[in-house]
C-alpha cells in the first residue's frame, strides 16, 4: 500500500506555486502528481520521496492535506498492459476512483497509481495479485523505481 | 386621508396621557402574569407602582431577543394558550425560531394599525391590494391581509414569488396597491420591462414596502420602474409585525403608532436613552398587546426619532428610515438571517470550530447568499465527489434552516479574514442599497 499526499486547494493562480515552493524549499522531491479540478477548487495528489516530512511541512504551512492509501501496480509498457489490470478489477466489480501514471526512472515497465474505495481495497489487492502481468508494489519498492 | 383621525391626530398631551395610562396597566399585567418580568422587576428592586410618569419607563428593564430564546416557545406569553388565536415565528439567533402569540384583541389592533398604515400610504376601500408578502409563519402576508380587509379594500392574497402570475394578476385584476419587499418590487419592475409592459398602462398607484432595509435611491428606482409612490413600512414580529410604523404622503420618516407602542432611542453600548434627533438603537414597549407584551424590547435597528410636527396632520412621532443594525443580523429577501444560524448548521454537520463567511450580493435586483466554509481536516476527502456531496449537504441544511438557497464554497484553511480573537469576520454585505 502506498501513502499518497492529498491536498485541497482553491482554484486560483499562485496556489499551486505556493505549495510547490514549500516542498522545494524543504528539499522534497515529487515522484508523481495528479490534479483533479473543479471550477472553485482542486485536489492535488502527490507521491513524495519523503512522505512524512512532506506532510509535516505542508501542515506547518496551514495547507489542508491528508494521507490517502492508494495502490501502485507495475504493468508491461505495451498495448493491453493496463487493460489486463482494469479488466480484472471490472470482473471483480471494483470501481477505480481515480488513477494516474508514475514515471519510473529505472524500469521500462509502466507504473500506475490508483485509488479504490477503502472497503474494497483488500479485495482489489487479492484480485491483482492473481494476475501474472501485474506487479503490486510496496512503498519502498515504488520509490526505488 | 386618515383611517382613525381621532387616534392618529390626537393632541400630543392627550396621547401621552393615554400612553401613561396604558403603560401602567401593561406593567401591572406583566408583573403579575409573566414570571420572567416579575423576576426582572424584583432583581431591580422595582414594583409596578414605580411607574408614575412616562419618563419612569427609563428605569425599567430591557427585553432582548435572547430573553425570547431562553423562554422558548411560550415563556413570555402573558395569557394562557387558550386565549391565543394565532402564532407567528421569525428567525432566532440559533436553530430555534422566535415565537409570538396574538389574542383576538391583538389581531384586531394589528388590523387597525395596518388599515391606518395603508390609508396613510394612499389606499382606501376602493383599492385592489396585491399582497406579495409571504403568507405563513412570517408576519408580512397575514399582517397586510387583515388590515386591508378591515379597510374594506379588495385583497389579493397571492403571496410571494411566481412573477409571471403576479404580472398577469396585476394587469388583469387591476391592482392599485402592491405590497411586498422593496427588492421584489424592483424585480417586478424589471420583469414588466422585459415583457414590454408599460407600467403607465397598469392601474398601480401605490406600493407599501418593508421587511427589508432600503434606501432613498432604491425608492427612486422603484417609483420610476413601477410608476407609483413607494412607502416604507416598518415592523417586527416580536412587536406585532408590519405596520408598527408607516411613511405618510410626506415620505419623510415613519409615524410610529404611539397609542400602541412607545419608542425610545438608546445608546447601544451604554443603554442610556438618547434625546430626540440622535441616532441609536430603537427600543419599543408594547402598551396594548395582550399575547406577548414586551417591555423596552431592543430591536437592534438603528434610527433616530423626529419630534417635529408632520405636514400630514398626524401627531405620532416619526422614526427616520433605518440606518442599519447593531447586531450582525442580515435581511436577505425579507428573511432574517443570523450568522450563528449558519454556525449551528456547520456544528450539526460535525464541525468543531467552523470558520465561515457570509457574502451577500445584489445581483440585478435579487439578493444572493454565498457561504464560504474553510475546509477542516475532518471534512476533507480526496474524492471530488465527496466534496461535492459535502457542499450539497451543507446547502440543503442551510436551506431547511433559513429557507434560502445559498451557494456553498469550500475554501482553504486560514483563507478567511480573522477578526480579533481569532473568530472569522463573518459577514460581508456587498449590497449597495
UniProtKB/TrEMBL annotation, chain A:
Coiled coil: none annotated. It comes from the Bacteria. This is ACT domain-containing protein. Residues 70-144 form the ACT domain. Transmembrane segments: none annotated. Signal peptide: none annotated. Pfam families: ACT_8 (PF19571). It comes from Acetobacterium paludosum.
From TrEMBL, chain B:
InterPro entries: Adenylate-forming_Reductase, AMP-bd_C_sf, AMP-dep_Lig_C, AMP-dep_synth/lig_dom, ANL_N_sf, PA_CoA_ligase. Transmembrane segments: none annotated. It holds the Pfam family AMP-binding. Pathway: Aromatic compound metabolism; phenylacetate degradation. Residues 334-431 form the AMP-dependent ligase C-terminal domain. Gene3D superfamilies: 3.30.300.30, N-terminal domain of ligase-like (3.40.50.12780). SUPFAM superfamilies: Acetyl-CoA synthetase-like. GO terms for biological process: phenylacetate catabolic process. Keywords: Ligase, Nucleotide-binding. GO terms for molecular function: nucleotide binding; phenylacetate-CoA ligase activity. Its EC number is 6.2.1.30. Belongs to the phenylacetyl-CoA ligase family. Monomer. Catalyzes the activation of phenylacetic acid (PA) to phenylacetyl-CoA (PA-CoA). This is Phenylacetate-coenzyme A ligase.
